[in-house]
Every structure is written in C-alpha cells, then in structure tokens.
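Running this now, will post back.
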Amino acid sequence: MSPEALPHSPRFDLTTSAYRLRTSGVARRVRPTTWNGPAVAEAVERTLRDARAAAGGGGEPIVVGAIPFDPSREALLHVPEHVSWGGPPEPVRPPRTGRGRRVRLDDDDPHYRRAVAAAVQRIRGGELDKVVLARRATAHREDPFDVNALHASLAAANPSAYAFRFDLPEQSPGAPPTTLLGASPELVLSSSGGLVESHPLAGSTPRRDDPDDDRAVAQALLGSAKARGEHGHVVRAVAQAFERLATDVHVPDAPSLLSTPVIWHLGTRITGRLRPGASPLELAYAMHPTPAVCGWPAGAARRMIGELEDFDRGLYSGLVGWIDAEGNSEWALTLRCAEVHGATATLYAGAGIVSASDPDDEHEETDVKLSTFLHALESADDPVPVA
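Update: finished.
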C-alpha cells in the first residue's frame, strides 16, 4: 500500500532534484542511550538491523526524521512502515503567488532588530566573530492549510531544493496535527558507497527582478570581503569535521554562487571518503550545528542565541533526512520552513550577524527568506501536481 493511500498515517516526504521519497507510518523509533553522534549512529544501525530481521530479510528499511538545532536534545528518527521511492517530479508551471486564499502574516519584529543591535555591540566588543540570529513569524488564514498542497507547491517553486514534509508526533490526543514543511537550499551531508559530500552556504544577498541588476548583485556578493569572511568560517568548520572522519578530503579554494528563486548564496562543495567504521551520522553530528546556522566561535554563539532569541528553535536549523543500512544517506538543513498547525503556520528565518551588520538590513534579509514559504502558503491552492 502506498503512502498516498494512508492519509491518517504519519508521513515523512522528501522531494529533491534527483528523487522523491514518500513514507508513512512508524514501525520502530530510534532510541539511543544518549543523543550524540556515536550513540545515535549505533542506535540507527541496531534499529535497521532489527527492522530487517523482523521483515524476514525482505526489503531495505530506512530511518527518516529530523535532528534538532541543539544536537544534544532528542531527535525524531524512525523506521517507516511504508516506503516509496520515485524519480524527480516532472517540470510544472510555478505556482502563481496570490491566487490562493488570503494569508495574513505578522512580519514586523522589533525584538529581532533589538537583538541584532545587541549582538553587533557585543561582537564589536570582541565577544565573538559572528552569530546567526533567527526570528519567527506567524501566518494565519480562515480555513486549515492543506499540507499536501503546500509540499507540492514548495517542490514546484524550488526544484533544486530539498522540499520536506514531516508529520510531528501528537502533543496530546485529539489535537490537530503539526507538520514541519520547508524547501531547504542547503545540503549538510550526503553519503553513497562511502563517499561523502557537504555543500555549506553562508553569505547571501536578495535577488533582483532585472537580469542585469541580478547579475551585478551576484558578482558583488562573490567579491564581498564581509560575505567571504563569513563563508570562510563555515567552510573551515565543515572541513575540520571531514578531516576527523574522512580521507581524501577536497575543499575548493574559493566559493561559487548558488541561487534560489529569491536569494543568492555563496557555497562550497566539500567531498571526501568516510574512514572505515565511521558512520555518516557521526559526521553529520560532528558538523552540526555549523557556523552557517550558529556562528563563530560555536560555544559563544550558542550562548548568545540562547540569550537574545525569544523562542526555542526546536527543529528549525536542525537536520532533516534519511539513512539506510548501507550508510547511504542525505541530510539537509531545516531552513525556509514552517510548522503548520491547522490554519496557522509558524515561519522561521535567520541571518548571520557580524560587526558590520545593520538591524534593518538583517530584518529585510529574513523577510526575503520568509518569502519562500509565504509564497507557498499563498499559492498552495493552485493546481500544482503532486505526482
């Protein structure tokens, strides 16, 4: 039975430019002795082994789910009851923003501007080099959002992204379900046959409608000392994690440009080969959270996030993905996302704060990042194919 035939069974779906993964149900949950890389990797291996044995050796079970921003907290990882793999979706007409039902967004955030100003002052005082501060906004409409349509809309509008849909465990019996949805541009880790790859992003600028202006801002980003410095912190942190758990590590000398429909990013593709006995989940935990979603130095940045942000990030800026018994896996950052609960969606976005940051500019940058999901909310009633 396919996941589509089980509408009331918890779903985990991931749509990428290369494949579509659709799952439903929870056969087994991953429960390590503690939440760190080695313990989680061992628990995942054991859970997959038990799942294969219970199935009589038939099928190839996988583990899917999400890891929080704080990797020491409990992750939501499980073996699904039903798994369906397919090819990438056919190209479709992008959704037309605004055709759907009206969505109201609480988008001005004075607290965020104050937090950015406080962070800049402390950075200039030498406390740290960079901190990533996030904000959240709430969107409402009169009737419940259709999470299936939202996932399809996100995948159609962001074909090069990792579009994910994850039904979270019920908080209380009979409560409306909460679903984590998003379209992340950033690959944290993929592994295949022992080869591993990460594509960290840091340093960004909004895109422009005029093609000449758009090319100009992209080249300005590529030449920006501020953006290159911010990006360099992330690349060094990821490369150091690779060096501990992988061989043949290759790090390009300079970043390249990556675009989404609304923003340009600097990106660097880092590759290597896992050392014998190492798990890709160990490597993912060793990297997470990277300076791209936390800051630098990491300890000082995490403390500042706890002091200045006015909400618990939970799964936002964590990892979302899957792994199989052979160690093949793919994990993306949980970005450009929201938690959808009935007729309410809680959206998240963040920006890297350095000594030269301006509170209004950073608020505008997060507005641009929030727009990825807001556009999906406003256009999800368009007839975008889901198969």
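Helices lie at 37-54, 110-124, 147-157, 211-223, 225-245, 280-287, 298-308, 359-379. More later if anyone needs it.
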